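Section 5: illustrative case.
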């Protein structure tokens, strides 16, 4: 199904507003796959499934800065027929005039942000990033906070493919 960028962004912002407390809600573990997990939960009558990981290394450009929890999500909503939506929770409000990036090997993917979350620009990038994640072993997410602090979060991709596939399957 093709959706326009504004429609996808609006849907993602709305749905991730629902998912904001997701890690505190009741959820079922679908499986643990090396450095990734897959979960399934019900949110207001919608089945939501996601693969999630946390960075194994993080750097901030300014000492003494703190941030909230950091997560990389690949989410599927059964009733909305949306699969593999990529979203990163940064743990701080992003500088909305900056261009957050994901790097896997020699491939770079530009993102945009709002609040403490960042997304890919379009569906083509999502397809390309998912392919790069399947082929790669490490991923780096870099962004800048509204206060100018640069962050670099490194994720292992071991188990990412299995977690993604399990999350999609759990929402069928």
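Designed sequence:
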């Amino acid at each position: 199904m093709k959706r326009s960028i504004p429609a996808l962004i609006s849907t993602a912002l709305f749905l991730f507003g629902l998912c904001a407390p997701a890690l505190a809600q009741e959820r079922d573990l679908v499986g643990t796959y090396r450095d990734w997990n897959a979960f399934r939960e019900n949110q207001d009558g919608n089945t939501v499934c996601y693969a999630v990981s946390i960075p194994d290394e993080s750097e901030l450009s300014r000492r003494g800065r703190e941030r909230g929890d950091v997560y990389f999500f690949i989410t599927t909503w059964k009733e909305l027929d949306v699969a593999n939506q990529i979203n990163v929770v940064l743990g701080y409000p992003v500088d909305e005039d900056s261009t957050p990036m994901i790097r896997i090997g020699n491939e770079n993917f530009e993102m945009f942000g709002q609040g403490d979350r960042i997304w890919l620009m379009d569906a083509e990038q999502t397809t390309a990033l998912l392919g790069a994640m399947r082929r790669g072993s490490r991923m780096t997410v870099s962004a800048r906070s509204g206060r100018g602090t640069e962050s670099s979060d490194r994720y292992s991709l071991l188990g990412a493919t299995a977690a993604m596939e399990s999350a999609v399957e759990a929402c069928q």
